[in-house]
Specification:
With about 300 residues, this protein is α/β, with parallel strands linked by helices. It is built from 14 helices and 9 strands.
Length: about 300
């Protein structure tokens, strides 16, 4: 039984806020249900909207170790689950042969013992750390291939792994599992069915202001308001890649480092590379949109005062 978990949706919201994460109620609801039902949480959304951060906040708020499996093309079992320390095994075999210990059965039992087992993230997540059940973050699952996805489906079904030389290792208590994807490809329905799903969208202006104020407290109220309003309007443009919350925070930090108290056309032009990651997007905003958006931002903020 999972311990120290929030007992309501409101408590879940408070837990996230305690970790500096300002979620909407729909996200808090699906997170609460995921923890309550012991089901993996499947988070989908654009890069930079804060999917990975949710697992980090859970680790902090629940005081549990975070084990992260960063997915990539070509990820296989030896990188994700376990492999044998072949170099150490060879040294052990040579030492036994040199000392005259040539009993093959005894040698095999020894070299294929846990002493020579290298635990990768999925295997680590099945074992408690100092009596605490970990949080398993499977990040950017869409970068892997369907073969690995099928293997992961088996692991998440029973929370156990079979190692031929050692037998089956099963979790005493299933880890809290958070899976993220940027939707560069569709994940198979069989895996999604085992999870609770939530689409993580860009935050609205009010929530993004809270995030900036919490993460970059050095920014003045005026600068924070202008930054958030500018980024919100940028996301309405036809860009190749909209800036995420991570870029908003980086931009706020960069402007603070430049001692800016408010936005101005030159500061925007000089720092667009912090906010946008594609040259075509930068060129478009530098050409005419940047100044126009800034004028709209100031007009709206002035009218709101």
């Amino acid at each position: 039984m999972q311990k120290n978990l929030p007992t309501s949706i409101d408590a879940t919201l408070e837990m996230l806020v305690s970790g500096g994460y300002f979620a909407d109620r729909s996200l808090a609801t699906v997170l609460f249900l995921s923890l309550k039902m012991g089901r993996p949480l499947f988070l989908e959304g654009e890069a930079g909207v804060g999917k990975t951060e949710i697992a980090k906040v859970l680790s902090f708020a629940l005081n549990r170790p975070l084990i992260r499996l960063q997915c990539y093309e070509g990820l296989d079992i030896s990188s994700a689950v376990y492999e044998w320390n072949y170099a150490a095994q060879m040294v052990e075999i040579r030492m036994r042969e040199a000392s005259g210990q040539t009993n093959r059965d005894a040698m095999e039992d020894d070299v294929f013992s846990e002493k020579f087992l290298i635990r990768r993230p999925l295997l680590q997540a099945l074992e408690q750390v100092d009596g605490r059940t970990p949080i398993l973050l499977i990040d950017e699952l869409d970068r892997t291939d369907e073969a690995f996805e099928a293997f992961l489906l088996e692991v998440l079904s029973d929370f156990q792994v079979t190692i031929p030389e050692l037998g089956t290792i099963k979790a005493k208590e299933p880890p809290i599992v958070v899976i993220t994807t940027n939707r560069t490809r569709e994940i198979h329905d069989a895996l999604k069915r085992r999870c609770l799903y939530h689409w993580v969208d860009y935050p609205d202006a009010e929530r993004e202001r809270l995030i900036v104020s919490n993460k970059v407290p050095e920014a003045s109220d005026q600068l924070s308001a202008e930054i958030v309003s500018f980024v919100q309007k940028l996301r309405q443009q036809e860009l190749f890649k909209n800036p995420g919350v991570a870029e908003t925070l980086d931009w706020a930090t960069a402007l603070i480092e430049l001692d800016k108290l408010a936005l101005d056309p030159q500061a925007i032009s000089d720092t667009l590379g912090v906010l946008l990651k594609y040259q075509d997007d930068i060129a478009r905003i530098e050409a005419d949109s940047g100044t126009r958006i800034l004028q709209e931002v100031r007009a709206e903020l002035t009218a709101a005062q």
